[in-house]
Amino acid sequence: MTNQSSLRVADLPQNTPTPFELRPSSPELDAIKQELGLLGLRKVSFVGSVQAQGKRDWVLTAKLGATVIQPCVITLDPVTTRIDVPVRRMFLAEWSEPDEPEFEMPEDDETEALGPEIDPAQVMIEALSLALPQYPRKDGAHLGEANYTEPGKQAITDEDVKPFAGLAGLRDALKKDE
């Protein structure tokens, strides 16, 4: 999918947008599903255009739509989510990697280096991975309380570790003494 959808920058017109529309086939959806670790993926569309920005830079704007199925973080039951997000990427001719091996990620995650080709399919997969819910949760699913302690001792509860729980007990004891 990625090779046939790549756009050669040298062939793109400078004065008009170049439209694209991607609707991956079943085998392509299966490959994306495996790559992103999804239980299911359907109704994927990526529609937009690439156009010149200044003399040497390019901008891709599109709308990503997909229905994804992920395991619930609590029950592992399937959770279906519809994703509809705008996507924008700037491909800069004079973009450089940071010199330091460790650096903070910039807030602007829309820019990348301009190469000989712009691949809307690759941008689609990246945008989909960024748009996925990090902690999909089935309606009504919640974590129970787990208590771990030695045999014969009382387990500490969530209420016991709240920062002001001890102060409330002290306050109540002081009121009794008055």
Basic shape: elongated
How many DSSP helices? 4
Number of strands: 7
Tell me the number of structural domains: 1
Structural class: alpha+beta
Largest beta sheet, briefly?
5 strands, mixed
Strand order of the largest sheet: 2-3-4-5-6
Helix content: 10-25%
Mean pLDDT: 83
Order of helices and strands: HEEHEEEEEHH
Topology:
Layout: H1 2-5, E1 7-8, E2 18-22, H2 26-36, E3 40-53, E4 57-71, E5 78-92, E6 111-113, E7 117-118, H3 120-131, H4 165-177
Molecular structure report:
- The chain has 178 residues and is of the alpha+beta class.
- The longest helix is centred in the C-terminal third of the chain and has 13 residues.
Which short descriptors sum up this protein?
single chain, 178 residues, alpha+beta, five-stranded mixed beta sheet, two-stranded antiparallel sheet, elongated
Summarize the structure.
This protein has 178 residues and is α+β, with helices and mostly antiparallel strands. Helices cover 22% and strands 31% of the residues.
